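User: Let's play a game. I give you a shape written as tokens, and you guess the letters that built it. Ready? Here's round one.
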């Protein structure tokens, strides 16, 4: 398993990663090709492969950058407002919205709107048509499942976290 949070080793690799981020954030994921990246750094594509063996290694390194920056934003929010979930949530959202391409690259791919609406419809009905609450519950479920699939919970802790989240959305709780 690759450690996404590991820093890049060489100065040239850091330069390549910075150029990849600029391409991604300015033009979106389609712009992030090995050929364009090499040209932006001023080297040939074969030279680029000396630092990153393939595009997925660049993507993994960018995801590591996003995860580190998110952690730093949350740590700053925690320091400013200890124990405040709203402060943490605002910091998370602010950072994600400031770097949408990088965030999406890190967290997944968008779904076609019609598929997302169809999938969310039962949840919307279960929460008595409260669209805001349904979206929040959808986000909770998506995040929990994504974290579980990616092995981001210590063994045995998923069920308790899931139960706590579900309980938070129970009628009369919000």
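Assistant: Ready! My guess for every position:
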């Amino acid at each position: 398993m690759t450690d996404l949070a590991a820093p890049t080793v060489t100065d040239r690799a850091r330069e390549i990663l910075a150029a990849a981020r600029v391409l991604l954030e300015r033009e979106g994921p389609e712009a992030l090709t090995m050929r364009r990246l090499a040209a932006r750094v001023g080297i040939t594509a074969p030279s680029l492969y000396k630092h990153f063996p393939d595009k997925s290694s660049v993507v993994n390194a960018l995801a590591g950058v996003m995860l580190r920056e998110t952690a730093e934003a949350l740590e700053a929010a925690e320091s400013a407002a200890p124990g405040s979930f709203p402060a943490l949530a605002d910091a998370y959202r602010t950072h994600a919205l400031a770097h949408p391409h990088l965030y999406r690259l890190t967290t997944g791919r968008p779904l076609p709107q019609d598929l997302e609406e169809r999938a969310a419809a039962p949840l919307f009905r279960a929460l008595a048509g409260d669209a805001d609450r349904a979206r929040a519950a959808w986000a909770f479920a998506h995040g929990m499942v994504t974290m579980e699939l990616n092995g981001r919970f210590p063994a045995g802790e998923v069920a308790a976290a899931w139960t706590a989240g579900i309980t938070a959305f129970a009628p009369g709780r919000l």
